[in-house]
Design goal:
Blueprint: H1 7-17, H2 23-35, H3 42-51, H4 56-63, H5 72-89
Helix pairs in contact: 2-5, 3-5
Amino acid sequence: MAEAVSNEAINKRLLWSCRRGMLELDLLLKDFIYQGYNSLELPDRKIFKILLDYPDAVLFDLLMGKSIAADEGIASVVKKIRSIATSTAS
């Protein structure tokens, strides 16, 4: 029987996936993994993983508020990431 994967192992894989070509994205996404990811429901976790497949420029524009996602799920997760970023910057 397969052993259950711990939250810590999942988060380590996600942290690796959050490594981007832009330092700003690295910091935003890393902070979100540490402070907000574990509170996401399963559908939002799946959406977060979809966001990680976005090109850096598109993801940056979404997270900086320069563009708005047409998909409500994506927009909701982006808002949560931005919220964590805002709270850690204060």
